Amino acid sequence: MLFCLPWCVDFVQVQSTVYANSMFTRSALLTALRRSGRLPACNDGFRSAGKCRTFLNIFRNLRPTSEPPPALNDNDLFHPFSKSPFPAVRARGETIQSLALCPVCTSESKHTGGSPSRVKYECPDCGWPSHCSEEHWEVDEEHKKYCSRLREVNEDEHDLRRGRKMREFHLPGPQAYEEAISFANWDLFWYTRGFPSMDTERSRRHATKLLTYPLTIGSVLHQNSGLTLNNRRVTPEGSRSLAALRTTLHVPPGAPDTEEAGAAKPQIRVFILGARAESSLPPHVWEQLCMLFPSCHLHLFFIGPQVSLPKPADEAVAQDTKSSASSTTEQREECKESPPLYVPNIYQPPAPKPIARLKRTRSSVQLYGFPSYTVPYTPQLTVTGIQANYSEVHGQFEETFDPYTDAFFLFSPGFGFPSMTSVSESNGIPLLQIASPTEWGPVIPALLASRCSIFVTGFSPEDMERDIRSLGITPNVAGEFEWVINPGINIFGSEKWEVADFDPRVMVKANWGLWAIRGKGRQIRKW
């Protein structure tokens, strides 16, 4: 029932007894409940007036609570960044003006040798700071090619903040074991999993951005995955690696895939290396993985210098005490949106803001030696975050890796980008990140030695090509791996454009592509 009335259950029990014995009338039943204290007694004055509140009209005066109207309606989502009603959007516009250069000035400076100006003029069609002046905006024909995408992102950002009920973020519960899940595309997955209907393209973009990280993992590891030998996305070596993982993730054919069936199974560990924004997703979003694999216990490890950590315990307790002791007026003032400090999405952003501290969150500093936490969120899902480079904690896991229970996921790691901290000793040219001793240099050979599958995503075709080419020229990596999944489009990539603050012309989609490798096997013959 919708209301927790302590006497409702007793009323149903008494009523069933009365109807079964056919001995009491309705008035006698109500009298018995009033005498027992399970139903409020009627005032004598109101009883004589015939206004006694009986069970039949108990919900008559209750009115459903109405949700506050959103700050913007559907036809008022477009606003220039400088005139946005939301402080976060205005702050982002100021950040872009301080970082981005005018594209027209940049092209002219190549011939004249002058320094380009910062963007100050906001395009009236997309609302983004795009040029240094209106004159340069008018002569730039290239801007029209991507202006519609920028306007789309502008409206999406305002839609997320306007305060409407986000139906696309309502996630379904457990899947019945006799209901199969399709991983053919987003639409079939939402339908077979029972998600709310995505009626608009904007709803699709919001939902895919939220779910792309857990669904990329789930769609690769699940036995109903669309990546197969038939479509040549999975190699023969990869089919053996995936089969090893799936023997642990699923139950034998014919057995019900339920939580009880996995009582004797080993734990599945998924290491997400170089984690950034994905580490700040709420645990109930990652719980969707448990709905795909009901019979296994998942342990997610977020490892990287930019992993989000929960708020300190004393700070969380202080906030709870303050909120419980404050008045209603003070609570409303605290709930008002304050101008947030926007973090630009530049090359190396700082660690994200602290995430909410859950009830069962505990510190793991003594276990790993670095700022870390562990949350046993459900009996099937445990989340651990370690704010450190993976090379610093590899020794604690090195002897425990098993291709049947462990897998690595690297979301847009940037192997082929030049390092910001390491240069070549011979010519002084910056090393690639995959060869940098302070970044991925010592990590990838260690992962290949474990023989576990390494799944990598890219945010564009150029990004994937750049990362894959770097594999063939890096010492201790070139010739030491074999393909598990051939490079290609990731069906469960995000459909929302992500715009770079340092140049609004740069737009990508998270987890656009996917490929995977593992350490090369060695066959030993005895003579």
From TrEMBL:
Comp. bias intervals (Polar residues): 320-329
Domain Mitochondrial splicing suppressor 51 zinc-finger: 101-160
Region ranges (Disordered): 313-343
Mitochondrial splicing suppressor 51-like C-terminal domain boundaries: 214-499
InterPro entries for this protein: Mss51-like_C, Mss51_Znf
Superkingdom of the source species: Eukaryota
Database matches in PANTHER family: GH20023P, PROTEIN MSS51, MITOCHONDRIAL
Name this protein carries in UniProt: Protein MSS51, mitochondrial
Organism, as annotated: Pisolithus microcarpus 441
